[in-house]
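Fig. S4 source data, part A: sequence.
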Amino acid sequence: MFFSKKIKAAALCAVAALSFGLLAGCGSDNAAKGDKTYNVGIVQLVEHDALDAANKGFVDALKERGFEEGKNLTIDQQNAQADQSNLQNIGQRFINNKVDLIYAIATPAAQTVANLTKDIPIVGSAITDYEAAKLVKSNEAPGGNLTGTSDMNPIKEQIDLLMKIAPNAKTIGCIYTSSEVNSEIQFK
């Protein structure tokens, strides 16, 4: 499934970030053996089937790659319930607790934690365009401490399929949320 590949890609980003932390701090034999327990903060904007799936897929993919809660991983999972002040509090909590990595699910969650820290690695998902969201300098060369996967739909393929299904269509409508940047990007 297309979506699960994106979730696994986000987990790979996290594994790379965690592994980089392991390599950067491998002055001791214990770190090289993987005896370190990593602390990951997960902030999810709101409860929603797609965002819940991203969260679960991320944790499952970490486990598949040897990062397991209770063994070498501690996860602090937080849901902001679509409240900006909750996002701020959760982000500050992660910083105060000195998590090794933040997984931000949805654009507002990523924007909030990106504004709070330039030191802690951040992996994002459920974000359409990182550059348009002002999370990175460019999608091609992000720089900084933030990486992740895009949930941009394969628009060209969708239109091609639509034309195969309804080759005589004269008018095509599109429903989107004009107040939501990711929706506008996909519409354009």
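Fig. S4 source data, part B ends here. The chain has two domains: 2-151, 153-188.
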